[in-house]
Fold this protein.
Amino acid sequence: MKPVAISYKPRSIDGSFRQSTISSPTEHTAHAYRPHSAVSGQQSGSVISVGDPENILVRTLEIENRTLREQIASLLEREQLAKVESSSLREQLAETEKRSNSLTDELSSVISKELGDLKLRLQMAQADRDSVTSQFNALNEKLIGTEEDLTAARTGLDVLKTYSLSVLDDFVVAVRELCKDILPAYAPASISSGGLISLARQLEMPAPNIPQNIQACIHGIHGKVYELNVCLGDIKIVTDAFRDTANMVKDRLLKERDTARLHDNEHRNETERLREQLNTLRTDTDVTVRELNHLKPLMKSLETENSGLKAELSALSDKLRQSQGEVNVLLRKVEALEAENTSIQATISVKDDQISELQGAVTMFRMERDEATSRLTELEKNLIALTEDVIEDRSSSRGASMNAARPPPHVSQQSLRGHVEHSKFEPQAIKTTLSPTLSSPKADYENSRLIDMVTNGKLPEDRLSAALAQDRVQRRSSSYYD
């Protein structure tokens, strides 16, 4: 039987390997046996002097089981630390809830007070708005009445303008026809008379603040009166010419009285008729002038009334602008209060978001701890199964290999099997309680390396299974015990 040396490289928590050699006391050159342990922890190298490879493997498993127990104890200690930290976090959360409740009460009292003030101000603003609205409606009704009066005055003025211009046009046409009747060779531009009276072509307004429509009406009437004056001057000239002609005819008729008496009487009758027409025309002209003189005071009174209405309208407009400015100030105050209310609500929502984030972190911590607990349970089960596989491999390798190592005479199979069976790791019941609070990320805890090992797929049971499988393959080969 050859002594066997086992090179053992346990892996520490930080990932580094340390070499440990297990050999017999009398051996100087040994066969390399390197199962890779997947258990993380601090373990010093030890030398085991045995002659049986199975016993060496059992001792190795015992060492690994002891290391696993130590590691589980450290995990339990870390769980206790996590419980302490969770209790402190729970206390902090309770204090935070108390503060948030007090802040909520203060905010609700302040908000209720501010809302009461806002309601009172809003009622006052509504009352002011109603009064301003009633005043504005009254002013609007007065303005509508004033506009109706102005419209009626404009309509009357337009009717007066149309009637006066039409009448004056008729007079001008009639006078020109009369001039043609008196003098057939008469043309309006053939006689340049200065008119019956002294009248300027352009009328100068005595009052500068007369509206444009009234000025246009007056200028139109003045133009027609000017034309009528020119026509009357033409009539005077034509009449004078006709008188001169009549006198000449009279002289001629006097000379030819005996031969032309009948003709002279006819001319006299015609002259009499023309005189009657001229008198009638003068009478009508006087009536027209009197009507114009009567219309001038009426136009002045209308102008005075219009100026008074304009002044009243400007005063009402000033009052309306002042009321609108007050309403705008009240609206700005209401908007400022609404903005303050919005900011208070935003503060409350931020507090709610912070509380929800704390609850989410608590839920994440619970899930991670439950997952680590389940992984640890599976690891214990796999270790038990691997121990049984080692026992089975030992019995099968004993029958398959002719050069298999025998146990020492003083060690019986029953005692060895009993030792292995009694050395199996019994999983301990781990009491897990759900932690309600968590405030720091996963990397801040002491068991963060273990959590990373579980979540990233670097599981200890996988490495242990691979090492045992490799050992079984080597033991079945013929060169294993050479």
Q: What stands out?
A: Residues 1-50, 402-461 have pLDDT under 50 and may be disordered. The beta strands are 6-11, 20-22, 36-40.
